[in-house]
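Exercise 7. Predict the structure of Bacteriophage CI repressor N-terminal domain-containing protein from Duncaniella muris.
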Amino acid sequence: METFSSDDILDRLKTALSLKSDTDLGNRLGVSKAAISNWRKRNTIDYPLVFSFCEHINIDWLITGRGDMELKAPQTNSYLPQSELMDRIVNQAKEIGRLEAELAETKKHAERLAALVDTDASARVG
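Solution. The predicted structure, encoded as tokens:
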């Protein structure tokens, strides 16, 4: 799965909104500059908040940098409206986060089991 940089997304959002600094971006989004800095450090973004400012912005461009920055016309998808697509993206991002946390817990559990097996094997040998 391709991973996208929050730095790139935030920089593209600043470009699209004609903003110069992270402070300006934070003010526009209604969050502190520290929140923007945390998003950059953790490579996470409050997607629902960001998308709420993207009615005229091509979401594909915002996330990947591909395509045109501005939507050429109100995007009409014969299958799903853009708002529903954005909701799906947000839900998928949440699901990815949940699955990543679950994977981390599974790895910890596997490490604990491996340690127990090593301890048991050492006790039998000794």
